[in-house]
Amino acid sequence: MLTKTFRSYLIAGAAGIILLGACSQSGDQEVTFVPEPPVMQDTPPSGQLPDGVTPTAYRLSLFTDPAQDDFTGTVEIDITLTDPHARIWFHSLDQRISEASATLPDGTVLPATFTRSTAEGGVSRLDFETPVPAGTATLSIAYSAPYNFGLAGLYKATQNGRPYLATQMEPIDARRMVPSFDEPRFKTPWTLTVTAPAGNQVITNGALKAQTTLDDGNLQFEFATTRTIQSYLVALAVGPYDLRDGGVLPPNGIRPRAVPFRGFAPAGKGDQLEEAMAITDEMVTWQEAYFDYPYPYGKLDLIAVPDFAYGAMENAGAIIYRESALLISERTSLGRKRGIMTTHAHELGHQWFGNLVTPRWWNDIWLNEAFATWISYKTMDAVYPDTGFDLAPQRAAIGVMGADSLANARQIRNPITRNADILDAFDGITYRKGGGVLSMFENFLGEEAFRDGMRLHMRRFEDGVADVNDFMTSLADGAKTPGIVDSFNSFILQPGIPYLDVKFTCPSEETGLVTIAQSRYAPLGSEIDTAAQTWTIPFALKTDGSDGDNTVRQLIGEPSIDIPLENSCPAYIMPNADGAGYWRFTLNDTAWQGLIGHYDALSAGEQLSFADSATAGFAAGNLSAATLLDALAVNANGDWGAARDPLSNLSGYMEALETDAAKEALRDFVMTTYGPRWTALSEASPDELSQGEQLLKTALNSSLLALGRMPDERAQLAASAAAYVGVINDPDPDAV
Ligand SMILES: [Zn+2]
Question: How confident is the model at residue 110 (pLDDT cuts 50, 70, 90)?
Fold first, then answer.
């Protein structure tokens, strides 16, 4: 609700000419100046700031010393105003404002009074006795503030007794470091000058331009002005960081200029930057080719900081990582290393999707994260081929289907009306389901058509903001497939998993008939109204025919539909070709048997979908235990990801069994089904195993120890664990 206070003010025209009164006469022609009241919104805005005042540039000067508890700053913010404003709303949190004013283009300085509102999120206001006229002006604010101790804004962390400063601004903590219009839609150049005591590295988004020693012995660092970025991408790190100079990312076919490249880690840990730095050029080069757009920023720094609230943050040109999400030592496990490299690819991908093109508001932050997740896997597959990352989006999406099967699951794109809603958007539904949905559309449209849509999107919105409708338009235009917009919306604007009830029959030897009815998936006992939702599904069906495998692709929006298969009665059908679809299926019994019998004809992605739909069908009461065990038995020898997927269900089955005899029978099944694979993997030398097989071996080891019959191995592990913690002798860190 807006309340405007109408008062008689000095009205200023757009050109800055001050006119007294409400009207003026010019010769015999009367010209009426409408007495436009200056904008004076009384109620603090919740959610977005009011329109009318737009920042166009920030010049920020900070004095920092990690040894102290406070810092001081002055900021100049160039703004444009659509109307005269006697009150300007902006963000400032935990700051002591000592001086505030607006300077007009003619040099006039209008003093301002600062008031913090009681609204959440540091919504604050500047009030001017003389309104700031429409046009341009520069706000100047001097302030001091404490370093945050909650890992938000400009915060302080200590390691080995040495203090470090780092920043985390996203989503709404830039306002803790600098008074600002702290919303993603405002993208501006930022120019930083930072003073710090000698002995500290100072890193921010811009490249270092000049360094001066001040009279008091402190060093002043002047940084280059950034390309336009939103406030949540501003970064600063100050402290005794180890520096590793990576030279430059050399020019390539897409980018004629070299990009200076460095790594930073807490003191003593610089060597652990080596692996991530070594792969960076290859990752950036691949992403540049994908987007057909050069890395957008003037330099690239990777900064591991002592304490960090998230995995990493994609600050433009100055990516900040939690130590354990960037540094690699000889003790880092394979799984951890894969996670580190994927995080790195994710943050690099954001330099385009998120930084160069930014969500207009937080309701589309899901798309930012879903896209970065998706492209991180594409990048990993490109730079580490044959390590299973081609199917990572599917594995991740299947991994979140448990949460998406709950009655209270949220939709991917949620309205954001309160600050408290923003962080809810950073969850598995955003990253995993969002990434899986993008992967599904890529599969449906084709890799090149999808990529063309992304390239178009980068060009259309470079240095700007875009919402999901802009994204879908770019995708539909680039891929030349307008029909996908409805389909896309049906996946992002409602929760849950489409459940396809597929009946397959052969009316004759030459023809098949597939009937598909859709509902929302629900496990037994759920309160979900399964009939209440439908999707427009980018469906893909694989069948075998006389001329080899065939794939039928079509958008299905109907609650039920017949797909006749002409010219053949296939031996099996797979209702999720390539396994890229974000849905589950159930089949009539003969169709399940046909699929189980032709398991080896399925691709690795299809095997993943097979395993998921079999366990999900059992949980929903649509698949008998006997058919489930048949499915698990063939799947145990499938692709490593598919073989691993159902293992997490086995302990649940064991718990649900009531008699010892039934539990013993399940133990027998586990040993007969998975024992031979585990033995083969254990006997192979690690060099012979792919990364995926090594991960499967670890997972099988846990499952068989817990649910199979491996008394010797359990005893040996128990002894190792006892030695590790030092039950009898001194702890032995090498025992496990
Ligand atoms: Zn991200």
Answer: very high
Nearest CA-CA partner of 211 in 229, 225, 226, 196: 196
Locate 420 and state its tokens. 């408290």
Query: Buried b vs exposed e over 52-85: b needs ≥16 C-beta within 10 Å?
Result: bbebeebbbbbbbbbeeeebbbbbebbbebebbb
Alpha helix stretches (DSSP H) within 304-407: 334-350, 365-383, 392-404
Query: pTM of the entire structure?
Result: 0.91
| CA 455–ligand 1 middle distance (angstroms) | 19
Structure tokens at 504: 């397959």
Q: Are 450 and 479 in contact, with CB atoms under 8 Å apart?
A: yes
Distance CA 294, CA 284 (A): 9
Alpha carbon of 491 to ligand 1 centroid (Å): 20
CA distance from start to end of the chain: 63
SS3 state at 561 = strand
673 confidence band (pLDDT: 50, 70, 90): very high
Q: How does pLDDT run across 245-271, given as a tens digit for each residue? A: 999 999 999 999 999 999 999 999 999
265 Cβ contact partners less than 8 Å away, ≥ 6 residues apart: 241, 242, 244, 272, 273, 303, 304, 323, 326, 327
The residue count for the chain: 736
**For residue 373, what are its two tokens?**
């997740």
Separation of CA 399 and ligand 1 centre (Å) = 18
Residues 6 or more apart from 515 whose CB is under 8 A from it?
502, 503, 504, 560, 561, 562, 563
Tell which residue, 416, 407, 439, has the closest CA to residue 366. 416
344 Cα to the center of ligand 1, angstroms: 10
| Residue 491 near residue 437, CB atoms below 8 Å | yes
What is the 8-class DSSP label of residue 46? S
Q: Any idea which residues carry the catalytic annotation?
A: 347
| 460-205-96 Cα angle (round to 5) | 110
Whole-number Å distance, alpha carbon 529 to ligand 1 midpoint, is: 33
CA of 313 to the centre of ligand 1 (A): 7
Cα(394) to centroid(ligand 1), Å: 18
SS3 220: strand
Residue 254 neighbours by CB under 8 Å, 6+ apart: 285, 288, 289, 292, 293, 294
Q: For 144-184, how does the pLDDT look when each residue is reduced to its tens digit (9 = 90+)? A: 999 999 999 999 999 999 999 999 999 999 999 999 999 99
Q: Which residues, 6 or more positions from 235, have their beta carbon under 8 angstroms from its beta carbon? A: 167, 169, 203, 204, 205, 303, 313, 315, 316, 318, 320
* CA–CA dist 217, 214 (Å, integer): 5
How far apart are the C-alpha atoms of 674 and 706, rounded to whole Å?
13
Q: Which tens digits make up the pLDDT trace of 348-380?
A: 999 999 999 999 999 999 999 999 999 999 999
Q: How many Cα atoms are found within 13 Å in the side-chain-facing hemisphere of 481? A: 20
Distance 265 CA to ligand 1 centre (A): 21
111 alpha carbon to ligand 1 midpoint, in Å? 40
Least Cα distance to 576 among 665, 444, 473 occurs for: 444
Give me ligand 1 centre to Cα 312, in Å. 8
Q: What DSSP designation does 687 have?
A: G
Ramachandran area for residue 317 (φ above 0: left; ψ -120 to 50: alpha; else beta): left
CA dihedral 55, 57, 63, 64 (to 10 degrees): 80
Distance CA 539, CA 581 (A): 7
Residue 248: strand pairing partners: 260
The candidate with the shortest Cα–Cα distance to 584, out of 504, 525, 496, 692, is 496
